[in-house]
Structures are given as structure tokens and as C-alpha cells.
Amino acid sequence: MPNDAVQEIKDKLDIVEIIRSYIPLMPAGKNFKAVCPFHKEKTPSFIVSPDRQSWHCFGSCNEGGDVISFVMKYEQVEFYEALKALAEKAGVELKQFNPQQEKEFGVLYDIHEAAVKFYEDQLAQSEEAKFYLKQRGIHDDTREEFSIGFAPNAKDALMVHLINTGYAATDIERAGLAFKTDRGTYMDRFRGRVMFPLKNTFGKTVSFSGRILPNLETDNVGKYINGPETPIFSKSRILYALDKAKQEIKKLEYAAIVEGQMDLVTLYQEGVRNVVATSGTALTNTHLQTLRKITDRIVLAFDTDEAGKLAAERTLDMAHMLDFTARLFFVPDGKDASEYIAKNPGKIKGVIERMQLTPFQFYHDRFFLDQFKNDIKRATRAFLQKTLMLASPIDQNTWIQQLAAKTRIPEQVLYEELQLIKKTRSGKTEPQTAQAVEEAPTSRIEKIARRIALVCTAYPSLRNEIEPYTAYFPKSAFDQKTKDLLEMQSSLEVTGDEETSSNEIKFLLHELKSEYLKAKQQKLVIRMKEAQTEGKPEESSRLLKEFDELTKLREND
């Protein structure tokens, strides 16, 4: 990439305006200041200099740079992706790409844009797909706004089209839109599906989610499937429609989160514009960290079944640790949002605003009125476990006061029980019965493995379920020192019955394998970049093949 092209982009953009589009800036003499978006602080230490066209954090980050480095860090993207997005804002045409960067990234974006147009054209020709969307209440203008399309039920329709357009089969496969069969031929990944483009925060399509048409549904075919992990797509990072919602989220100062594209699209056309959705994965810590840069308030709109409530629990735990103010909304009558909207047009926006539950209400009802309604001791322990997830001691104190008022258990007793749970969790119990684990698990893999081990300690019959996954566990997961502590903690921390715990184990094993393979892929990406920097194209290609093999393993889980 010629340096003059980079300089031209920087010359045409005002760093103050670009950064202001992400975070609020306040005048500070000839500069501007803000609370740093990259670490938690109360006193603004983030300075933007119009004269130098640079930014710097004088707090714990102690980092700084130009407009490109800010976008890279804020959006968590590579140099090429940030530069391309800024070039469009500046009206600069990038005529000369670094060939390796173009091969690794650029062609994948181009292929996805071509696929969007192909799927839209196919939808225009499919009466069956248009009828399905009409049945689901999707209007034509909404369909166009979200670039919803249709993948024909043919083995290689997209593949043939893209090859005829000039793209290489290997790049189409690398983009995740086709796969190679055992016979060595290529087949479209998406067939007979309504297609939802998944876009990054710049509005660039990076993958797809496809919903099978009802007449093609079978037990062996997933209702929804998503594109695989690629160099430009990670499902644990992308939130569906965030590119559209982020300005409305800033305006209303909160984000609504739903599970699935169809619910989101129907909510959007009902006027709920501050809404995002996950795509093919449970909400992750990375998703929440992305939202935390925009707002500190969220409303979770999940399904009312047990899976939806478990997802709500898991998300609230993460949200509280990130100091979000969270609320929950469950669609009346046990329906999903799109079903409710179809029967009650024009009402959902007001219902969401009126019928929000606080986390306290949700956990109280879940534990005391549902799961453990006949066992106040287990219900209280389960509730206090959630109290410990709150980042603020003030919030913890408020919850205990409210719980005491509702249950008539004295506050002092609740505090004593809370302290017992704290000691047990940290391993600081009676010296003759247990010793503390030297270091709490830090990586997500270790945390998942620890939780699996904890549940299996409570319900030993579930241990058979983990045998096919033993290769993905860290070595310390089942050592004797850890087992001793788990024995004591399991009765306090595993609050579900055996059936609920079995469902949790299945979900956690899937997450464990996914995180293990993702970690290996992240290491490969670093090694690929090193190989490119050192001028070793053969090594880079070999590593790319390893990356693709790991992607296939993640898909097959």
C-alpha cells in the first residue's frame, strides 16, 4: 500500500469527527477529552488533538496513535479493514493493494457482496420464498433494507455464478460459501434457504445466516445455519444489525438484544431500531464488550422456554461483571417476538417499554417460585450466587435488602450465607477439609472446563458425556487438588436438577470445543502474519490450510 494513499486518507479526514462518531468528546482547551473507551475509568484521560491529528490515553492504557489506529483498536479489525472503511469515508480510491492483503481479505469482501446481489436476484424470482417472508410478516421495503435474499435449492448455483463472474473456486471456499465434497467437486453451503447477510460495524457483508424453507425441513437439516469462521468473520464478535442499530442505541441509551434474525427484522419494522441479535452462537463476552463501548444499558428479549431462561442467566452473569444495567423482556403468552407481532401489530414497542423485569425479579421468580419453590435453602443459595456476580457492592447490598423483605429471612442471616459462599468459592474453608486452588482459571477454556468439572462432581452420572471431548480440556481440569475443592463447591454452585445440568453440560462441551479450536486458529493467524512479514508464502499457505481444517472441525460439532 503506497504511503501517499494512506496520507491522503488521513489528510481528508478530521480525527475529531471520526472519533466523535464513536464516543462523546468534550472541549479541553485546544484539544478534546473523553472517558477512555479502552479501559474503565471515571475521570477522562483520553485526549484528541486536532493540531496533531492524534489521540492518546494518559490513563492506564497509555496508548495512542492516528485515526487509523483508533478505528483498528475500537472496531477490533486489521489495518487493511480499517483503511478500506476510512478510504470510503474520505472518498479515496485505493487502486494499489498489497497483493497478500488483497488475497487474504479484500477478495473475501468482494465475493460476499457478489453473493448478496445473487441471493437478492434469486429471491425476486422465487414465489415460494417471497410467500414465506410474507407469511412471517416481512414487508418488501424491510426485505430490501436488510438485503434479504434466497439461496436456490441447487447444489452449485452460487458457485457457478461466482466462477463465471471471475472468482476462484478456492477463494469462494475460503469465504465459507462453498465446500469441497469427497469427490473433489464444490457444493454451495446454503441451499433452499432465506438468506440474511451478516455485516460488520462498517456495513460490509462478512457472512450469511440461512433459514431453511419450511417444506424442506427434515430432522437432519438445521433450521438455521451460518457461515463458518473465516479471516473476516467470527460469530463470537458479529452482532446482527449492529451497523444499523448503533446510532439509535446511542440516542436511546440502551440496546435490545434478541436471539435470531427473524425476530430482529420484525421488531425493526415495528419501530424498534435499537435492536441487535446473535447469529449462530450464544451471546459472548466479546459481544457485550462491543456493546459496552456504545451503552451501559441492555434489555434481553429471549424466549420463555427453559433454554431461553438459561441463556438469560448466562448473559446476565456476564453483563453484571461488565457493570451493565440490565433488564429482561419476555414476550407475552410464551410466543416469540415475530409471532406476537403478527397477532398484535403496532403493540410490541409499547409492550417492551412497559413489561421489563429487573434481574432481581427474574432471579427471585426463577428460584423461589419455579426451580426450587419447595426448597427455600437451595433457592436462597442459588439467588446469592447471582448476587456475587454484581460488580457493585451497593447493588449487592440492595439485592440482599430486597430479598430479606420478600422472604422474611433476616439480612444478617443472608450476609452470613453470602460470606460462606464467598469463602467456599475462593477455597478459604476450614483447613482440615480443603485447600485453595492456587490460581483461579483465567482463560475462557479453563472457566468452561471448571464449570463442567463442577457439574460432573455434583452429578457423576454425567461424566460419560464428556469422554469424547477430553482432548479439549486443560490438564489441570481434573487434577486432585482441583477435585478436592470441587467436592465442596458443587453443592453450593450447582443449583439445577440432573436434567437441567445435563442440558448445561451439552452446551458447555460445545462451547469448550469451539473455544479450544478458536484459540488454535488465533495462534495460526499470528503465525500467518509472521510468515507474510518474513516473506515465506509457502509457510503462509500451509498455515492457511490448517486454519481451514480447524474451521471444518468447528462446523462439524
From TrEMBL:
Known cofactor(s): Zn(2+)
Note describing how the cofactor binds: Binds 1 zinc ion per monomer.
Molecular function as annotated in GO: DNA binding; DNA-directed RNA polymerase activity; zinc ion binding
InterPro entries xref list: DNA_primase_core_N_sf, DNA_primase_DnaG, DNA_primase_Znf_CHC2, DnaG_bac, DNAG_N, DnaG_primase, TOPRIM_DnaG_bac, TOPRIM_dom
Pfam families listed in its UniProt record: DNAG_N (PF08275), Toprim_2 (PF13155), Zn_ribbon_DnaG (PF01807)
The enzyme's E.C. designation: 2.7.7.101
GO CC list: cytoplasm; DNA-directed RNA polymerase complex; primosome complex
Superkingdom per UniProt: Bacteria
Keywords, alphabetical: DNA replication, DNA-binding, DNA-directed RNA polymerase, Magnesium, Metal-binding, Nucleotidyltransferase, Primosome, Transcription, Transferase, Zinc, Zinc-finger
Enzyme class (EC, first level): transferase
Enzymatic reactions: ssDNA + n NTP = ssDNA/pppN(pN)n-1 hybrid + (n-1) diphosphate
Zinc finger (CHC2-type): 36-61
Function, in words: RNA polymerase that catalyzes the synthesis of short RNA molecules used as primers for DNA polymerase during DNA replication.
Subunit and interaction comment: Monomer. Interacts with DnaB.
PANTHER family assigned to the protein according to its UniProt record, in alphabetical order: DNA PRIMASE
Stored HAMAP family: DNA_primase_DnaG (MF_00974)
Family of this protein: Belongs to the DnaG primase family.
Name of the protein: DNA primase
Organism: Candidatus Wolfebacteria bacterium RIFCSPHIGHO2_01_FULL_48_22
Name of the coding gene: dnaG
